[in-house]
């Protein structure tokens, strides 16, 4: 996506062959590659937003905290045969919940600043991460805004209690959760954090991200 971002003469077809396929959920009506490619030949490209960060483009989501640790811990489960990518994510969630870490962060969303201990921060262009977890229920890849979910530091019991709500996108009214929107987002810490850029995990002390409006041409087979 980085190579074709901002180029009007190039378009992208999203093939759902990854572990989570979350960006595909915002683009495609089905998972059959044969049907997807056939339908794509009859569709005109549409412009969608993406996220610019560290001289690259993120199409779906940036996660830090426990959700990035879940992505990093997938390495323990990727080679297990005969189970789906979604099940691998669930196994990684269970593993990560029982090996918790505390993350001190300074988060800036446009002109608002939040400081403290947080379980996770998700910055997204799309609703889903982690193989279908609806972490940003109101996100839209064509609205020119980034959605942000901040979850305060939680106990093991709170993680177990609230995880089903977060998975289903019913966490907006929880006291430990803030849902925000903005165009320029930054996260900083005094020590290295696990940060997942569309599933690629790096251990860094912070990053800056901004919305890149309607800059990427994609072929959508999802009629909405």
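Q: What amino acid sequence fits the structure above?
A:
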């Amino acid at each position: 996506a980085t190579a074709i971002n901002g180029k009007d003469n190039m378009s992208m077809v999203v093939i759902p062959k990854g572990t989570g396929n979350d960006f595909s959920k915002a683009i495609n009506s089905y998972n059959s590659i044969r049907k997807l490619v056939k339908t794509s030949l009859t569709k005109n490209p549409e412009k969608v937003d993406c996220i610019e960060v560290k001289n690259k483009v993120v199409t779906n989501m940036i996660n830090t905290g426990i959700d990035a640790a879940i992505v990093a811990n997938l390495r323990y489960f990727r080679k297990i045969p005969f189970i789906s990518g979604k099940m691998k994510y669930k196994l990684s969630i269970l593993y990560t919940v029982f090996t918790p870490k505390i993350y001190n962060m300074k988060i800036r969303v446009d002109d608002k600043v939040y400081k403290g201990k947080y379980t996770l921060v998700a910055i997204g262009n799309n609703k889903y991460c982690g193989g279908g977890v609806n972490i940003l229920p109101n996100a839209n890849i064509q609205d020119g805004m980034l959605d942000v979910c901040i979850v305060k530091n939680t106990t093991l019991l709170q993680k177990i209690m609230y995880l089903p709500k977060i998975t289903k996108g019913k966490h907006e009214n929880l006291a430990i959760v803030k849902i925000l929107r903005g165009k320029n987002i930054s996260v900083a810490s005094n020590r290295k954090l696990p940060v997942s850029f569309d599933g690629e995990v790096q251990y860094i002390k912070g990053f800056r991200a901004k919305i890149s409006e309607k800059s990427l041409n994609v072929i959508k087979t999802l009629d909405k």
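Q: And what stands out in the fold?
A: The chain has a mean pLDDT of 88.
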